Amino acid sequence: MTPVIPAPVPVPLPAPAWLLEFLLVFTFILHLLPMNFLLGGVVMVSVSSFLGRNDAKHREFARRAGGALPPVVAFAITLGVAPLLFLQLVYGQFFYTSSVLMAWFWLAVVLLVMLGYYGVYWYNMQQEELGRRAAWVMLTTAVIFLLVAFIFSRNMTAMLRPQDFYNEFLRGGVGVILGPLTSSGLARLLHFVVASLAMAGLGVALLSRLWRRDAPGFAAWAHRYGLRWFQAGTGVEFLVGIWFLLSLPAEVRGQFLGASTLGTLLLVAAVLLAIVALVAARLSLAVSTIAIVGTISLMAVIRHLVRVAYLQRYFDPRSLPVHGQWVVFALFAILLVAGIATVAWMLYVFFRPASAQAG
Ligand code: HEM
Q: Which ligand 1 atom minimizes the distance to the CA of 77?
């Protein structure tokens, strides 16, 4: 059967497609970092909540790290809005269709995120009162956020297969169609989850610097503990990454194995930076952090190239009409830069006492 591909929205783009695609990837990286800390963070705090029943260090860790989670949730949610807008703008006809096919799950994300947000606050504010039940509250919260990641990953994967839309529609069940969970889909989800565990470990190692002043012994333990998660997660990520690459369709995989110079160079650079991050972890946390943020950023670009390769048979965003709305665009750019500068300043102020003390 000839595939039925939805037509693009007839409204012209407000800026050239390349600029919107750049902003889609750039703002996705901004979402990805706190989302990684959040997903990995809730898992780490869950584990420590259970271990903390018999271990004072884990109890203290769960208390302190749990306190850092509410602002991380706020960052993850707020920074998800911008890529969502750019995604709809450039890939609307694919993204809307896959969202409608899984509508009930997609709509459930709002409720799940609210429940998860409630969970981190509940854990944080009533740990004493909850007693042994606190660990279960955090575990439930972790499951909720993992479910959110699962639904996002299903949608971002389903939108890449427009040739399936019509058949899925004909088969019935519109609203609850998540699509088949293929090996590639599973590897993609696992790639995000394992990366989150590694990044949360690095986040803990960074956070432990703040704990040096009032609890130096505990801070040294937390530093080592965070690094163990980071190193183990990054190590496992090499294996999951290979699985993910091999599970991609041959024509997509080929883009990163020689068929495209750009794709291949990006993958090699991303892997090399991950190796640097791994080797530098115990020598310099700053070098390791810069290297791994480089890996994550390059991986986000690679993920976009995967999307382009999947859809190239059906759609080229550059074919869309453009009617530049430059005043609005300049306003967006100014606010984006001001927003990033404000967050950078907040982080600097947050970490300053510890670094000043270290210096
Ligand atoms: C707070 C819990 C959240 C978690 C755990 C989460 C997790 C994820 C994951 C794992 C992906 C990658 C999926 C894939 O490519 O396979 C993703 C992508 C995305 N998320 Fe989130 N997300 C969260 C909240 C949000 C919210 C609230 C928004 C919007 C307001 C959002 C916007 C996006 C967008 C637009 C993408 C795709 C960007 C692109 O395709 O380039 N996320 N998210």
A: 27
Four-residue CA torsion sign, 240, 198, 23, 287: negative
d(CA 86, CA 208): 36
Tens of pLDDT, residue by residue over 57-84, are 999 999 999 999 999 999 999 999 999 9
DSSP notation for 67-105: HHHHHHHHHHHHHHHHHHHHHHHHHHHHHHHHHHHTHHH
* Number of the ligand 1 atom closest to the C-alpha atom of 154: 16
Q: Which atom of ligand 1 is nearest to the CA of 38?
A: 5
- How far away, in angstroms, is 144 Cα from ligand 1 center? 14
Threshold 0.85, pTM exceeds: yes
Low-confidence ranges of the chain (pLDDT < 50): 359
Q: In CATH, which superfamily holds the domain spanning 17-334? A: Formate dehydrogenase/DMSO reductase domain (1.20.1630.10)
CA 284–ligand 1 middle distance (angstroms): 30
What is residue 157's predicted lDDT score, i.e. its pLDDT?
A: 96
Return d(Cα 342, Cα 79) in angstroms, integer.
14
To test ligand 1's pocket by mutation, which of 21, 72, 152 has the most ligand atoms within 8 angstroms of CB?
152
Taking alpha carbons only, the member of 182, 154, 178 closest to residue 247 is 182
Domain residue limits, the chain: 17-334
Ligand 1: residue whose CA is nearest its atom 35: 84
Say how many Å lie between the CA of residue 152 and the centre of ligand 1: 6
CA neighbours closer than 13 Å in the CB half-sphere of residue 191? 21
Model confidence pLDDT, tens digit, residues 214-246 = 999 999 999 999 999 999 999 999 999 999 999
Give the dihedral sign, CA 110/113/117/118: positive
